[in-house]
Amino acid sequence: MIDHLGIQVRDVPTSRAFYDTVLAPLGARRMLEYGDVLGYGVETPDFWLSPAGSPDAVPEAHIAFTAPSRAAVQAFHDAAVAAGAEVLHAPRIWPEYHPTYFGAFVRDPDGHNVEAVCHAPE
C-alpha cells in the first residue's frame, strides 16, 4: 500500500547525519540527493527528507500509495478532484525518477502531499 514516505526536517545536515547513522544498521543508506532532498532505502529510495518551509509552517508529510496501474492513478486523481482536493500535479510520467514512473499528486484536507504512483510500464 505505501510506496514511499517523505517528511520535512528543520535542519537537513543534522538530519542527514542522524539518518545516515541510524538507518545503516537496518541495511538502508542514502541513495539519492536532489539538492537538500535526500532519499534513503535498501533497494530503492522509499524514505525521503526535505527541508521544512518557514518556521511557522506546519511541516508537510508526503505519502505515496502504490497503484496497480496507470488507470488506477488516473482514478485516484479523478476521485481526489471530485472530493475537492487541490491538484499539485496531474497524472503524468516522471522520467526524472525513472522511465515508467507514473504519478499524480494532490493535497489532502490537512495540507499533506498525497500521491498515487504506478511503476509498471503502460
Automatic annotation (TrEMBL):
<dbReference type="InterPro" id="IPR004360">
    <property type="entry name" value="Glyas_Fos-R_dOase_dom"/>
</dbReference>
<feature type="domain" description="VOC">
    <location>
        <begin position="1"/>
        <end position="119"/>
    </location>
</feature>
<protein>
    <submittedName>
        <fullName>Glyoxalase</fullName>
    </submittedName>
</protein>
<dbReference type="Pfam" id="PF00903">
    <property type="entry name" value="Glyoxalase"/>
</dbReference>
<dbReference type="InterPro" id="IPR037523">
    <property type="entry name" value="VOC_core"/>
</dbReference>
<dbReference type="InterPro" id="IPR029068">
    <property type="entry name" value="Glyas_Bleomycin-R_OHBP_Dase"/>
</dbReference>
